Amino acid sequence: MQGKTSGAKALDTRPIEPWPECRDWLGRIDEEVLGFRRDEHHAFLLGGFASRSVRIERAGRPAGYAYISAEGHIGPLAVVPGADPGAVLEAAVLCALRQQQARQVSMIVPGKADRILAAASGLGLRIDEPFVLLSAKPFGDWRHYLPSNPGFM
Questions:
Q1: Could you list the residue range(s) of the whole structural domain that residue 71 is in?
Q2: Of 22, 99, 119, 124, which one is least surrounded by beta carbons within 10 A?
Q3: Measured between alpha carbons, how far is 22 from 146 in angstroms, rounded to an integer?
């Protein structure tokens, strides 16, 4: 099943190929965004844990990826640096609502992801449960990544 977002920044959503065919492009995005690969994480999610996984692309090139649960929880979601984070989020939300037919949508949005947070607010989402992550060392570009839950960070 494929979908398109609305507006001038139309993106395509396509199912992510089975593991390991998708390893290279997912790994490149994770390295760009997080500074490391998450191969085992993707293998686990694509092995049946995620209800839906989508490659979000523009003109055949990846703009990001998203995993969407049957209940409408989005995450992890990664946005390729240089892609429009708001458009990638909108594509994932529309996929959850239209293709997954979720009654509600949820996600964890880091405070550093200000453009994603603004887009989520513009789509009518609200902050339900704030939390704080502390780390002794910096890791990841949290402007471009939404974790599925704190345990997967």
A1: 3-152
A2: 124
A3: 19
Angle between helices 85-94 and 114-122 (to 10 degrees): 40
Give the number of other Cβ atoms within 10 Å of residue 119's Cβ.
20
Q: What is the total count of domains within the chain?
A: 1
Which tokens hold the place of 13?
């959503």
Alpha helix stretches (DSSP H) within 2-130: 23-34, 39-44, 85-94, 114-122
Q: Which residue has the tokens 């607010």?
A: 121
Burial letters 44-67, b for 16+ CB under 10 A, else e: ebbeeebbbbbbbbbeeebbbbbb
Q: Are strands 73-79 and 61-68 parallel, antiparallel or unpaired?
A: antiparallel
Q: What is the CATH number of the domain that holds 60?
A: 3.40.630.30
Average pLDDT, integer, range 87-98: 92
Measured CA to CA, the distance from residue 79 to residue 71 in angstroms comes to 22
Whole-structure pTM value: 0.87
